[in-house]
Write a structure and sequence with these properties.
It is a single chain. The chain is mainly beta. It is 4% helix and 29% strand. It has helices at 8-11, 60-63, 175-178, and strands spanning 13-17, 24-25, 30-33, 38-40, 46-47, 52-56, 71-72, 81-88, 100-106, 113-115, 123-125, 162-168, 180-185, 191-192, 197-200, 205-207, 213-214, 219-223, 238-239, 255-256, 263-266, 276-278. The chain has a five-stranded mixed β-sheet with strand order 19-18-13-12-20, with no helix packed on it. Strands 4-3-8-9 form a four-stranded antiparallel β-sheet, with no helix packed on it. Strand 10 and strand 11 (123-125) form a beta hairpin. The two termini are 40 Å apart.
Length: 288
């Protein structure tokens, strides 16, 4: 977890799993971050076969129940952008290869990176909160569990008339917080957006995983940021984590239908074509 909703110096955590068949003492194992800061586990810390331990940057009394802590590391910092974390066995040479290593381009606010299988190197951004006391997503101290496949909106005819009505690709605040997408229902029927899919120009996609009803003539706002990171002026309906909206334009301008970035809205049905798909107008045509 590189970007917790609480203070980074408290909420950052690292989970270590034992995929072997023997019990292991982590004393002497070394963690190294992108800026070459290191922490050697200084006390006995046994991990059973198949078990998971959570190492936190903050002390237990500071965590206040945010996440369980098996051990505190204090000399590492998990940067939000262009990060790396390496794990070295005890007494490793300076030029030794790490036992394991993970790199990331950009952390999603309030969501950990999760390894889907201990025997491969496939990582995903967490989508399910682990506690009812906050909205941060992950599974600290437990194995990854894939989220349930959302149920598509049933349809027996043409797709409902939903439209991408506004997109903010260059907010004045951090892109990872302020980017938003507005969806309008121009049909005469109420539509459940659960199962609908957004796809950006880089083929990143996000499937709306929960019930999200939109009435005829209504608008819904989907934000990239979570409520704790959004300014109070934002009204958040749901946050998307996987899409990015790169487009050259002046800050503070959102895009109306005349000038939309490459973004598609799909019903989650086999072989379906997108309901809406738009490409950006030249940068010179941005509103003034």
């Amino acid at each position: 977890m590189a970007a917790p909703s609480i203070d980074d110096a408290v909420g950052e955590f690292i989970e270590i799993a034992n995929a072997d068949i023997v019990r292991v003492n982590l004393q002497g194992w070394r963690l190294v971050d992108k800026r070459n800061r290191s922490h050697v586990i200084a006390t006995e810390l046994w991990i059973e076969p198949g078990a998971y331990l959570v190492l936190t940057r903050g002390a237990v009394d500071k965590l206040a129940g945010y996440v369980h802590s098996d051990y505190q590391f204090y000399s590492l910092q998990l940067v939000n952008t262009d990060g790396k974390l390496s794990l070295f066995a005890p007494n490793s040479a300076v030029d030794a290869q790490p036992v394991d290593e993970f790199t990331w381009d950009k952390a999603s606010p309030g969501a950990s990176f999760e390894r889907t299988d201990l025997l491969d190197n496939n990582w995903v951004v967490a989508t399910t909160p682990w506690s009812a006391t906050h909205i941060d997503k992950g599974s600290p101290g437990a194995a990854f569990v894939a989220p349930p496949t959302p149920t598509p909106t049933p349809t027996s005819g043409p797709a409902p008339l939903l439209r991408l009505s506004e997109i903010m690709a260059a907010p004045s605040i951090d892109d990872a917080v302020g980017e938003f997408i507005e969806i309008a229902n121009v049909d005469a029927v109420r539509v459940n957006l659960q199962g609908w899919r957004l796809v950006d120009g880089g083929n990143h996609s996000h499937v709306i995983a929960t019930d999200l009803w939109i009435e005829p003539g209504a608008y819904r706002v989907l934000t990239k940021g979570t409520p704790s990171h959004l300014p109070i002026i934002f009204i958040r309906i749901i946050n998307f984590l996987c899409c990015s909206l790169p487009i050259p334009m002046a800050p503070f301008h959102s895009l109306r239908r005349a000038i939309l970035p490459t973004l598609s809205l799909w019903m989650l049905l086999p072989g379906a074509a997108p309901v809406c798909a738009y490409k950006p107008a030249p940068a010179s045509s941005a509103p003034t």
